[in-house]
Amino acid sequence: MTVPRISRALFILYLVGFLFALNQALPAYINSTFLSGFATEKTVGMIYVVASAITVVLFFLLPRLLRQFGNYRLAFGLFILDAIAMLGLAVSRSFWSTVGFFVCVFVATFMLAFTLDIFLESNSHDSRTGSIRGIYMTVINSAWVFSPLLVGFILSDGDYWKIYLIGAILILPALFLLRSGFRKFNDPTYKNIAVWSTLKNIWRQSDLFRIFSVSFLLGFFYTWMIIYTPIYLYEHLGFSWQTIGLIFTIMLLPFILTETPLGKLADKKWGEKEVLSLGLVIMALSTAALTFVSSTSVALWAALLFTTRIGASSVEIMCETYFFKKVQSSQADIISLYRATRPAAYVVGPLVASILFIFVDFKMIFLALGIIMLSGLWFSLRLKDTL
Hints:
Elements: H1 8-28, H2 31-35, H3 44-59, H4 62-69, H5 71-91, H6 95-122, H7 129-154, H8 160-169, H9 171-182, H10 195-204, H11 206-236, H12 241-252, H13 254-257, H14 259-268, H15 272-289, H16 298-326, H17 332-359, H18 364-374, H19 377-380
Helix pairs in contact: 1-6, 1-7, 1-8, 1-9, 3-6, 3-17, 4-5, 5-6, 5-8, 5-9, 6-17, 7-12, 7-14, 7-16, 11-16, 11-17, 11-18, 12-16, 14-16, 15-16, 15-18
């Protein structure tokens, strides 16, 4: 399979996406442990709930913000907010300032992902959506793959401030690239989000509703794994951050190994439904298996977590490909709700986990998560393929 020709705009967007992903990925797996220095490990999730609820509300205002400022100016401003908040986390020493800066970073990153979607969709065509998004996902996921090793190398004696400082510095080249490539971006017409009418529209389009549901479940999976896996490995199993960095780097490799070829296959040969369903099964079984592992073998944990991400990467690229074959860049109302499924999962996920912790041991969340992922087959098997 040949790599499609990449326009200048797409090339710049891939670079911006890589820097943005690295900015997100470096602190992603230390955030919960960092926050546990200000709150108990089982209530850290409630900080995510607050940040996520604010993000969901702001998503409904996005079309209005896009019309007022344009996608370029909005993205530029969000990058600056992200950088300032990361610098704040690097120097913060109190609970409330830490939570405030964390919420700003959380909100900015989710909304930035949306603005980058607008740029990407405006430079895509349905016949190449899978290929273009496959390359984009591979580029940004490469940042996620190597960031845990960097974190393990940088961290010593809980020096979390170093990670946040580096994250803020990464914004500078991203701003330069964004300005050089998209300063004269021609915005499409953005529709207001009439929440109930948009939800009704999605409900009436059964395939769109099903892909929304699978996307929410994927967000639920990421929520629990990002918040609770680092805590479990660090606090309960006693792995060092250097070891956790190695495990997470191996764990994330499927995102750069599978998404580009699977995106191309979704365009040319396969439908999305089969890969999506198989990915959910792999996620469910491998995640549930973590419950029964008491060993501190690095190889075993790396292998099992690697397998969970084989499933997750398959589900992710199929969701992205299927959804963006169904919508256009001007449909900011539907895209906003689709992107809101991830922060919505960050609202629901920690709440469910907090209730679960009342009744079961910490590690039982993996078994519960596996069962929840298996329920996604109800939606994926009913999809109508785009081919």
